[in-house]
Amino acid sequence: MTTANKKELTIGVAMLGASIAYLVMAYRVPGHDGIDAATVPTLLAILLCLLGLLQTLSAFTRHAQAAESSSDTPDQPKPTVTEPLTVLKTLGLILLYVVLLGPVGFPIMTAIYLYLQFIVLTPVGHKIRHLLYVVIAVVTSGVIYLLFREAFDLLLPAGLLNF
Amino acid sequence: MLDLLQQGFGAVFSLNIMLLMLGGVAVGIVFGAVPGLSATMAVALCLPLTFTMGPQAGLSLLVALFVGATSGGLISAILLKIPGTPSSIATVFDGGPLMEQGLGVKALGVGIVFSFLGTIFSIIALMFIAPQLAKVALSFGPHEYFAIAVFSLTLIATLSAGSMVKGLFAGTLGIAVSTVGIAPVEAVRRFTFGVSELNGGFSMLTVMIGMFAVAEVIKLAETGRHAVRSKAGSVSMKDIKGFGFSLKEFRQELPNASRSGLIGLAVGILPGIGAGTSNLLSYIVAKKRAKQPETYGKGNIGGVVASETANNAGIGGAMMPLMTLGIPGDTTTAILLGGFLIHGIQPGPLLFISQGPLVYTIFAALLVASVMMLFMEFYGLRLFIKLLDVPKHILLPIILVLCVVGAFGLSSRLFDVWSILLFGVLGYGFVKAGMPVAPFIIGFILGPMAETNLRRGLMLSDGNFASFFTNPIAATFLGLALAFVLWQLYSAVRPRGGVLGQALRT
Q1: Which helix (H) or strand (E) holds B88?
Q2: CB of A74 within 8 Å of any CB in chain B?
Q3: pLDDT tens-digit map of A65-100
Q4: Which of B49, B222, B428 sits opposite A152 (nearest CB)?
Q5: Containing domain of residue A106, as a range?
């Protein structure tokens, strides 16, 4: 099985998994006699399962086609470098930011998040300019907080800086 | 109509709103120009700014962003040879070669002027057609609305890029996510797991901010550190008269522009496909109809004219179903719908009766924003080129913070911030799986509309499904939806689709 097919299969299985989970939950919705609040979710769940199944099956049938086309096109575009680690770091940072947003507050957390995220996303070959990053992070955080507080009447969580 | 329009202009021509719109057009152009940022994002991020404004000021700002961002894509399409938005893909074909030949300013001038003409044309069409459509739509009942929602969903799910199975799955999943919360008609709680915040379902704006903006930041994390940054070419504005091209060239391109404008408008009205399709379609048609088709792709201004007129003509087109039926035609109008709702305005046929002056304020704002776009984009070009160089690793984290602010601002609760994170991860998953996002969004928005009207329709006819097929308008739309799926299946089985099919699929 080619890598492309394996990917399509994984996608199909993920689709099927989500569909079945929704089907189970739709079944637990009270009702199920005649047309009621459970009707549309049940119909949707069945449709989702069918589509998930189609995708899973197509991963097998496309096997022959994919193999043929890969031999026709030897000059594929250069693969872009992907970094799952950077994605995980970014997700972790965002998660941390949201978790601590309430208790620590918007101004402090935003400055910390921005500073760390700038570092994580700095392109390879670029110098990490700590001082500049800190300045941008603190200024951005402060400007957004005050702008929304004073001009747009939106009170972002102040947290520790509750003055 | 004229006195209503006069009132509209009266409202827009206040210092406060004019300044807001100037800012809106400028920010919009930047969002359109920087690859990776989009009109949808621009509107989503600026929404929290409008919370405390009145509907007139707020909506004027949002449409200014919309107009600016739709046009801004041409800057990077010509200077960087990367389309800033999908709606400027065809601009690259001829804009890029023109830039290489040292005619960058001419390409930009042509692009901007015809963007402007396309926008104006479509807004005038909107002003004449929309009130008539609204009159027709007034007589629509649940059967018709259900059928139109199903039709729109089918269109967007089957026409999105990639496989039809994935498109349909994305659309259905969108409806499934919209069923979270209290059900219409008998108010049963569904899929809330006892979480009280889920009673109202996920907010439309958190879904969109997550899927478009948060997912974009995660996407950058994956490849951004190794991306090769292309330098924007420089253009000299010295010795430039007018907009950099002659009156003769302008006259020569008028037939091409009118044709492209009509294509852009018609494609824009259809739900599901918009400027991303019409610019390619009108480019293909312009090339076929040209006297020397071989010069296209080598730096013929006709290519830029076709693409830019068509994508901007989509603005008026996409606003039509939004304002008259409350159905967004694409993701940008979907988020505009969110903006309307935040200001307590329900788009639909009644809008023209209950909020007549406001409707014409929006029309006036669209017209004024186009004029602003024309001058700002051309004469402020060098400033916008500088902004193209703002590094992404600084820009995107700041955008994420603005997303958080926007989500929190919706109803001052952290639950919405968690929602954008959830949908951001889902949106990233969609990108990885090659699944189109647009059907999911439209499914999420139209799902409740389809379900509510299905239930109401069934109640009216005592649970009889046949009434959906005996109603002429509903039957037509349902029949069209079915025919469309069958046609798509047929062309998928056939080895090669026609030119039209290929253009629609890209």
Answers
A1: none
A2: no
A3: 443 343 333 334 445 677 888 999 999 999 999 999
A4: B49
A5: 84-151
